[in-house]
């Protein structure tokens, strides 16, 4: 493949671009970010002229970093073909020695090296693939070395760990960047299947006309995981399930479901519609939140013996809009659970009239967000035979036929950064509203941690949150 082939989708930009990947040799970069850059390259979706500069504390040569990327792609994507790699590798550089307010390491020198090829009118994209605890230090360094003007900055989650820390970080970030320069990434929003939530709704009257309190009893957003936290114990014990997943991914998916029709499908209107509904999230009631920890968690290397970090959270969320008044959104996620899934289930109220679905399954419209995604309709039909006996039936529409050529969530979102499309990123106002809704869970009224067995469905107390419906998964 020739250097940066052109695809029918076009290039993200004609502007020469330097991408600085802070934490370039870290786990997040290796598993997700670098494979995404490679996918953009092979699809011809990087800028026509670009340099990728890894940054870290170690003394790594350009050639060593290129080999590191090759090895990461071989492990977590596919081994690069020789011809494609021949075009990619010369654009990869590394700046060691760290990067702080008073010591830029070799980063400024390597940027000048990139400018020798790209010219002085290059654009910079700062990608902070580093632990959240390092966001502040790196942002201050960007400011001190005057690398903010005209650039873009991508921040991973969580952007702050509480309402107060969010405000502190947000104030610092806005002292360096305008809001339009900042891309706070939440990879759930980049998933094709997540975006189907609003596309399917707004494009099909069959669903759109029943998408409200008049027809729906509750909404369940369920993301259980069978994985433990062994490979990221340090990060996880400082964060926990509620902060890592609830206030980020699950709140954002809830907003995708609950938002009002946007004025248009343009980026600003989509973001406004999603974040207007987040502003209507009622602060969580601690009595409607269950926190858990799987039994073997404290035996994990790197986890303190007395840790009370939550590895499970289930919550009942209320959204105070006319459309959703009185409809509970049930959110659940956890580690070391019975299965792995990513599902949004819209559960319908029982029908009125002479036919009742007693003994049959709950009527529901289910969106499977894993992989290519699927849409499942769970309904009541007549059981074959002479009597009108109701029975359950389930029909699944797999979306492989419309998923050919789809990109991974990270690839899609990084492409949007290049293109300047902020529709699938969280704004400062939206995150502030999310932390306001989450704040009671971090107060003195934080629910006590309940232990649950490894490989189970979490604490039994979470079942009560759904009322008499039960969780569609595991019930």
UniProtKB/TrEMBL annotation:
<feature type="binding site">
    <location>
        <position position="244"/>
    </location>
    <ligand>
        <name>substrate</name>
    </ligand>
</feature>
<feature type="active site" description="Proton acceptor">
    <location>
        <position position="249"/>
    </location>
</feature>
<protein>
    <recommendedName>
        <fullName>Glucose-6-phosphate 1-dehydrogenase</fullName>
        <ecNumber>1.1.1.49</ecNumber>
    </recommendedName>
</protein>
<keyword id="KW-0560">Oxidoreductase</keyword>
<dbReference type="GO" id="GO:0004345">
    <property type="term" value="F:glucose-6-phosphate dehydrogenase activity"/>
</dbReference>
<feature type="binding site">
    <location>
        <position position="57"/>
    </location>
    <ligand>
        <name>NADP(+)</name>
    </ligand>
</feature>
<keyword id="KW-0313">Glucose metabolism</keyword>
<dbReference type="Pfam" id="PF02781">
    <property type="entry name" value="G6PD_C"/>
</dbReference>
<feature type="binding site">
    <location>
        <position position="335"/>
    </location>
    <ligand>
        <name>substrate</name>
    </ligand>
</feature>
<dbReference type="InterPro" id="IPR001282">
    <property type="entry name" value="G6P_DH"/>
</dbReference>
<keyword id="KW-0521">NADP</keyword>
<dbReference type="Pfam" id="PF00479">
    <property type="entry name" value="G6PD_N"/>
</dbReference>
<comment type="similarity">
    <text>Belongs to the glucose-6-phosphate dehydrogenase family.</text>
</comment>
<feature type="domain" description="Glucose-6-phosphate dehydrogenase NAD-binding">
    <location>
        <begin position="20"/>
        <end position="196"/>
    </location>
</feature>
<dbReference type="InterPro" id="IPR022675">
    <property type="entry name" value="G6P_DH_C"/>
</dbReference>
<feature type="domain" description="Glucose-6-phosphate dehydrogenase C-terminal">
    <location>
        <begin position="200"/>
        <end position="467"/>
    </location>
</feature>
<comment type="function">
    <text>Catalyzes the oxidation of glucose 6-phosphate to 6-phosphogluconolactone.</text>
</comment>
<feature type="binding site">
    <location>
        <position position="187"/>
    </location>
    <ligand>
        <name>substrate</name>
    </ligand>
</feature>
<feature type="binding site">
    <location>
        <position position="191"/>
    </location>
    <ligand>
        <name>substrate</name>
    </ligand>
</feature>
<feature type="binding site">
    <location>
        <position position="225"/>
    </location>
    <ligand>
        <name>substrate</name>
    </ligand>
</feature>
<feature type="binding site">
    <location>
        <begin position="23"/>
        <end position="30"/>
    </location>
    <ligand>
        <name>NADP(+)</name>
    </ligand>
</feature>
<comment type="pathway">
    <text>Carbohydrate degradation; pentose phosphate pathway; D-ribulose 5-phosphate from D-glucose 6-phosphate (oxidative stage): step 1/3.</text>
</comment>
<dbReference type="InterPro" id="IPR022674">
    <property type="entry name" value="G6P_DH_NAD-bd"/>
</dbReference>
<dbReference type="InterPro" id="IPR036291">
    <property type="entry name" value="NAD(P)-bd_dom_sf"/>
</dbReference>
<feature type="binding site">
    <location>
        <position position="157"/>
    </location>
    <ligand>
        <name>NADP(+)</name>
    </ligand>
</feature>
<dbReference type="InterPro" id="IPR019796">
    <property type="entry name" value="G6P_DH_AS"/>
</dbReference>
<keyword id="KW-0119">Carbohydrate metabolism</keyword>
């Amino acid at each position: 493949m020739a250097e940066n082939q052109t695809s029918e989708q076009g290039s993200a930009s004609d502007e020469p671009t330097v991408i600085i990947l802070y934490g370039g040799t870290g786990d997040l970069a290796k598993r997700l970010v670098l494979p995404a850059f490679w996918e953009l390259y092979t699809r011809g979706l990087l800028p026509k002229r670009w340099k990728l500069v890894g940054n870290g504390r170690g003394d790594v040569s350009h050639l060593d970093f290129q080999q590191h990327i090759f090895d990461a792609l071989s492990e977590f994507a596919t081994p690069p073909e020789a011809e494609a790699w021949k075009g990619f590798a010369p654009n990869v550089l590394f700046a060691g020695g760290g990067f702080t307010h008073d010591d830029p390491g070799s980063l400024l020198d390597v940027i000048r090296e990139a400018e020798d090829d790209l010219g002085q009118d290059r654009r910079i994209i700062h990608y902070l693939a580093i632990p959240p605890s390092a966001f502040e230090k790196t942002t201050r360094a960007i400011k001190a070395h005057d690398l903010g003007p005209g650039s873009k900055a991508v921040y991973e989650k969580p952007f702050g760990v509480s309402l107060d820390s969010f405000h502190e970080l947000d104030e610092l970030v806005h002292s360096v960047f305008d809001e339009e320069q900042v891309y706070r990434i939440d990879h759930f929003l980049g998933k094709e299947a997540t975006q189907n939530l609003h596309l399917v709704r707004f494009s099909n009257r069959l669903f759109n006309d029943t998408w409200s309190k008049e027809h729906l009893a509750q909404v369940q957003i369920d993301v259980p995981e069978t994985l433990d936290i062994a490979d990221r114990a340090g990060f996880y014990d400082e964060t926990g399930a509620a902060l890592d997943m609830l206030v980020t991914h699950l709140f954002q998916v809830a907003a995708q479901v609950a938002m009002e029709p946007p004025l248009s499908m343009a980026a600003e209107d989509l973001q406004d519609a999603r974040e207007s509904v987040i502003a209507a999230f009622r602060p969580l009631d601690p009595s409607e939140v269950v926190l858990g920890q799987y039994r073997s968690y404290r035996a994990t290397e790197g986890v303190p013996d007395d840790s009370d970090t939550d590895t499970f959270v289930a919550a009942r969320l209320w959204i105070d809009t006319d459309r959703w008044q009185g409809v509970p959104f049930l959110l659940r996620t956890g580690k070391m659970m019975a299965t792995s899934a990513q599902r949004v289930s819209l559960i319908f109220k029982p029908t009125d009239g002479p036919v009742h679905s007693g003994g049959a399954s709950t009527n529901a419209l289910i969106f499977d967000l894993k992989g290519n995604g699927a849409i499942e309709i769970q309904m009541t039909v007549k059981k074959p035979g002479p009597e009108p006996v109701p029975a359950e039936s389930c029909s699944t529409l797999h979306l492989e036929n419309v998923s050919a050529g789809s990109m991974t969530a990270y690839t899609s979102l990084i492409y949007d950064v290049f293109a300047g499309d902020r529709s699938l990123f969280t704004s400062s106002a939206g995150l502030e509203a999310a932390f306001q809704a989450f704040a009671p869970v971090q107060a003195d009224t934080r629910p006590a941690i309940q232990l649950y067995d490894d490989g189970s469905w979490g604490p039994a107390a979470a079942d009560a949150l759904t009322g008499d419906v039960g969780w569609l998964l595991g019930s």
